[in-house]
Amino acid sequence: MPNSPSESDSDRPCRIRMQHRGPLLVEGPVEVELEDGSTVTSDRFRVALCTCRRSRRYPWCDTSHRERKRS
Asked: What backbone phi and psi angles, to 5 degrees, belong to 10?
């Protein structure tokens, strides 16, 4: 259902899109609390959160989940 013009961003639920073998796509901006209690933030309109833990930029996805093919 489309948002009404009077509906503010804070009234809308946060949308998270799940992808098979991929990251979680989250509508931003976001603040992520890590296991150690620290937080990281992003002000982007959409962020990709790593679910495979292969990312060198964890918790942000860097596409490390993709299969690498040797030539």
From this structure: -70, -15
